[in-house]
Design brief:
The complex is a heterodimer of chains A (109) and B (137).
Chain A lengths: L2 E6 L7 H16 L3 E6 L14 H8 L3 E5 H6 L11 E4 L2 H8 L3 E4 L1
Parallel strand pairs in A: 1-2, 1-5, 2-3, 3-4
Helix pairs in contact in A: 1-2
Chain B lengths: L5 E6 L7 H15 L3 E6 L23 H4 L4 H14 L3 E7 H7 L8 E4 L1 H10 L2 E5 L3
Parallel strand pairs in B: 1-2, 1-5, 2-3, 3-4
Classes of the chains: A alpha/beta (109), B alpha/beta (137).
């Protein structure tokens, strides 16, 4: 089992491949038995708002992908950490550096 | 004593354009505070990040002086990152893609930046704990 950190910096509403490709990649890797984290940063945190129409993000949470949202990006966009979608947690960017130092497979999108 | 980690970052975005640049510097700052060795391969527009002729400016539209505007310059961020890394026992090795530099007339970089080629990126990746490519879109 490999550890993957997939970083998503864009909102699914600004680029169709975010939900159509990258979220699917995360779910597929999880289905194959890997430890997968989707780390949302910059506008990538927008679908993490409670009440956002983000069915695809909700579906990958159900598929076993851990979803984290960068605390700084949330604050920049006035998204309170207690108003996140179910299954999404706020995390510092340090998480990504931790995973790089631990030799996880880290991919930016 | 724990083994010192080495992280490599490939950057492609030109300065003053993308949030990706800010996030890349945030990541590198965290690594710098930990005393990691950091390698940067700056490709395409990213070779402008340490360009030495960047200058701050006043903002006449908003009526702000040079000091009030306090314009951030990426070359200062690169220099600060170098200092922070060394202060914590690490080292920042910043390589600008030579051909990208020629194309953009950006050879005048701040001290500590060296010229190289994609071969340096391969070497960095082979010698690093991990590598992150932050590609332009």
């Amino acid at each position: 089992m490999a550890r993957y950190v997939l970083i998503e910096s864009r909102d699914p509403l600004e680029a169709s491949e975010v939900a159509g490709y990258y979220y699917d990649l995360a779910a597929g890797l999880a289905r194959d038995g890997n430890d997968v984290t989707l780390f949302l940063v910059q506008n990538g945190v927008m679908p993490a708002r409670f009440g956002a129409r983000a069915d695809k993000l909700a579906s990958i949470v159900k598929s076993g992908v851990k979803v984290l949202a960068d605390e700084f990006s949330l604050r920049e966009r006035a998204i309170p950490r207690d108003r996140l979608a179910t299954g999404v947690a706020a995390a510092p960017l340090d998480f990504v550096v931790d995973q790089m130092a631990a030799s996880s497979k880290v991919i930016w999108h | 004593m724990a083994e010192q980690k080495t992280l490599t970052f490939a950057l492609m975005d030109a300065p003053f354009e993308q949030s990706r640049t800010t996030t890349a510097f945030r990541l590198m700052h965290i690594a710098a505070k930990r005393g990691y060795k950091i390698n940067v391969f700056a490709y395409e527009g990213a070779v402008g990040l340490p360009f030495n002729l960047q200058k701050p400016h006043a903002n006449a539209v908003h009526g702000r002086s040079l000091e009030q505007e306090n314009h951030p310059l990426p070359k200062d961020w690169v220099a600060a990152l170098m200092r922070e890394t060394e202060r914590n026992g690490g080292k920042l090795d910043w390589v600008n893609c030579g051909l990208c530099v020629e194309e953009r007339g950006a050879a005048d970089a701040i001290a500590g930046v060296r010229r190289g080629s994609p071969g340096d990126f391969l070497k960095f990746a082979q010698e690093s704990t991990n590598t992150l490519v932050i590609a332009t879109k």
